[in-house]
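Sorry to interrupt, but I need a hand with the structure work. Go ahead and set the record down below:
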Amino acid sequence: MNYFEENRSYSEELTKYNRVCYILLLQLYNFILSFSALFIKETVIFVVDNLKNFMIQRIQSIYLLFAAGVSAGLTFVFNLWTTVNDTLVFAKDNMLYFGLFLGSAALSLISIFLFKNRKSQFMLGRLNIILNFILLGLFVYQSLNISGETNVSEKGIGIFLPIISIVLLVLANKAIKKDEDLVKSVDRLR
């Protein structure tokens, strides 16, 4: 048996082995796909059945969800500023800014699920507004304090994300206050 015949038989065995592995992987993939489809279906049914318990349909919950999306999601999309070297600076590049944005998003999400305790929800909304004002103040300080354009060459739209979040949080607090006043007026009638 020469070298070519030896490699050819090895190649045929490897091809058979690859086919068997491919079939096994395909079956595993189909099993995982069917299991994940069942899991997704059960999750959707659970969320739809418990939508009343989560109170997502209230307008303040929608405002708080949008505020969490602005604080957590859009910080990855919009840059804060551009440096002199034309590098984009995002909130994830500075741990202080990133932590404050994530803290704001966490407060918004926690506040959504405190719908049974409107006073705590209102207080967390105010705390979140203060946190966003601190974040906005840090951005203004960063852009005004640096002299001679040493670090910040061009300001990005990400600097204005706390303003959008503040507006959404004020609208949510206004709706929470309206619900609280409605409950108090009903209690007075009893």
Observations:
- DSSP finds six helices and three strands in the chain.
